[in-house]
Amino acid sequence: MTQTASATGTTLSNPGFESGDLSGWTTTGTAFNGAVTDDPGWGWGCCFNQQGSYHLWGFAAGGDAATGTVTSEPFTLTGTGTGMVSVLVSGGRNDNDLYAALTTLDGTVLHKATGTDDEAYRRVTWDAREHLGKQLRVTVVDKATGGWGHINLDDVRVGTDPAPDPSQKGLAAHWDFAEGKGTTTREKVSQAADPISYVFNDAQYKPDSDPLWRPKNEADGVLSGALLFDGYSTWVTRAASQTQLSTEGLTVEAWVAPRAFEWGDDGKPSVVVNQQDKAAKRGFSLGVGRHGRWQFGIGTGDAWYEVTVPKPAALAAGKWAHLSAAFAPSEGAIRLFLNGEQVAQTAVPTNARLAKADVPLIIGRHNQPAIINGTFAVNMFNGLIDEVKIHNSALTPASVTSGHQKDVQTFAGGATPKAQMEMDRSRYDGDRYRPGYHFTAPNHWMNEPHAPIQYKGKYHLFYQHNSHGPYWHNISWGHAVSEDLVHWRDLPVALAPTEDSVAPDGVWSGDAAYDENGVPVLLFTAGNDSQRPNQATGLARPVDPGDSDLVEWKMHPTLVTSQTADLNVGAGRKVRFGDFRDPFVWKEGDTWFQLMGSGVQTTDGKDIGGTALLYTSKNLTDWTYSGPLMIGDVAAHPKTGQVWELPTFLPIGKDAQGRERRALLINPAFPAGPGEYSSKYVYYWVGTWDAQARRWTPDTTEPRLMDYGDHFTGPSGTVDDKGRSLVFSIAQDRRTERAHYDAGWAHNAGLPIELSMRPDGDLGFRPVEEVSRLHDGEPLLDISEPTSLTDANTRLAGIKGDMLHIKLTMERGTAGTFGLDVLRSPGDEERTRLFYDAPAGQLGVDRTRSGNNSSAEPGFGIHKGPLTLSNGTLTLDVFVDRSMIEAYANNHKSITTRAYPFRQDSLGLRLFGDGSTVKSMTVWKMGNMTD
After folding, report:
1. How many C-beta atoms surround the C-beta of residue 817 within 10 A?
2. What φ, ψ does residue 425 adopt, rounded to 5°?
3. Exposed, middle or buried by CB within 10 Å (0-12, 13-18, 19+), for 920?
4. Rg value, the chain, Cα
5. DSSP H helical segments within 609-745, as ranges?
6. Buried b / exposed e across 261-277, counting CB within 10 Å, b at 16+?
7. What is the pLDDT of residues 667-696, one digit of tens each?
């Protein structure tokens, strides 16, 4: 509860009933005897929202049947105050028999206010300046005995509230979001503080923090400050009856700067402000639809009238705009205005009247939103909102224009300010599970990173991103840049779904390549639900190739590859029509090659396996189909999927005959089920590639698993200027949808790895050498000579941390199973065990004690796979990054896994395996990827 206001400059005692009784007040009848309470809610609902602890609840004494009065002691309205008297009132609506009043000593009523048939308090302010120097009272009258026959009072303020602001004349409500901090925002007409919902008001995995207020800047005029609505957890709520709306005319206006646009689930807009029940044809709504096409709707009880702006009046992401919607039934019209100019109109009957909706008034969230994954309400605004006003009349076009011009005059130089709404990583400070040095999206959702490329000395990385919240939807291309592969700088979204582009419904995974001039181009999966398949390849080029950050991109106006049902994938077979995504592109000589992920079926529809379809081009826009590069066998290898996604085809060296060796990496997909294998594995094949003959010859058709940890997926790759074949991946976090909501983010990338060819011809890989640049200071431990486990563990005992790099070489000796525990609690109640099982010849991870706080998996279990030791030694390169654990063994196999310890002290390291020896071990503390 907020602190109770004092009655400055008066002798009024007990103005908010904080004595816990009626001290200073006189009663008649029985309506108010014993009615002072500290109840926050009324039993069958919530909440009063009283100030302080206590308030006067008229129902508490005798229900609705009791009658009576309660009157304050006399007070003098002195000239040291503002001359305003205000009270919090709620309860029944009855102007004659149920009201709070400001009176003279002889009982003459000067001002009065009744309830709104709602228990939630609203503030009523009376201008009593003409009575300065006189003695007055506050009296509450209850002569009503039927339903809602009670009235409530709290927090009488005398001489403290500001005098009426002339600018508020004619307004039913006005939120200027001037606070700059806190979890409430004050509505200026009623002076009531409305709660702001925000996920970190009561955070689950980090310290509490305020909603995302923008810093104040005088040059921004009326837009100084503003509140950033994060797209999924931020909204402002006001009880249904707290705002009294005119039924005969209404104008709703707001300044908005959308950060991105939603899909528009259920055909509903992302609401700016609403109090609507569209099914009942009641209330009103101002919101933004797909691709920035904003709209206004109003219900009259028998009809719902709605108008949407034409395409030229659509909003632009990242820019402020002033929206006004006027409901003018006397003129038979609803009019929409953008930046003071009328842009749309629809007719309404002249006898139409607003039918009020008995639902809360909400800013930033739809009253009846669609729900994603049973958890996330969509149809929510993502971006800045400021200066929300509801006028109790239909403003004329001239009034709207002059009002807009008045706002513009407050801006420095008369120029609309820049919308400051970059995604701030600091909102997650203190999150115990969010990785610090593995790449994460700055906010919200990411899945696979993709399209890595080098340009002008910088590495660029793109990734699948939903800026609206931590769930898969509204997918665009996030973008980051680095000079060393491990420290990353966030850039604006590179590609987003746009109206009339080749990708109106999603910009899904793809790749980057260089054009004939050495300038990067992006090839992406263009989502268009009006076509079948809804997946094809689009192309984008940088607007300014001279910009080494490559911030701005423009899509090519037409698709460059599309799937047809008659693609030749072999006799008696057909392509899996409808699955066609994730281009991977490279150039050899004067020819560009493109792989597209898909699947192959028999002509009668039985799945044969995934495939990578090969295309060639001489110019990046005209592609010729060559056939399948390779076709999987899902019957023999069920975990390889009916469809292959994200085919990645990278060189790893040449064999003794000078033939180019390559590795084909794929992400299995299971559109026909079962889902148990989804988003868990990356399989690969190694073989020889003949570009001239367009022929790939794998050493074996047997798929091999790269990572044994069940969390490594979504590969993408590039060859950098050092000749290294680099691979990026996504590390699934496997948390519940509720945990994603509460955390505010989902998933992160694995460390970039470098591929190589082992002496036996198999694929080798290891983290890029640049990871050493993340080391924070000198090693915490450095063992360089053979040491017993006992001595090593003694030296490890004082080392704690959840952002560590451990380089460890152990000699098996006589041990059967040996390895390293990380994120270990002092009593071994929790730990994640990386082990080598020598008799079985397997590398594994035991997560049975890892802790699964927030995990979608009830039990973690053990994951393992084959690995041959090198001369009896195991070398582990281990990276612990809060919930993220990566271990690379002998530069040949890896384990990517997660741990969500319950205990705060699960930070230790310990070696195990009696009979083994530590040959060397170094431990570093790690810095952040944004340092």
Report:
1. 19
2. -65, -20
3. middle
4. 33
5. 737-743
6. bbbbbeebbbbbbbbbb
7. 999 999 988 899 999 999 999 999 999 999
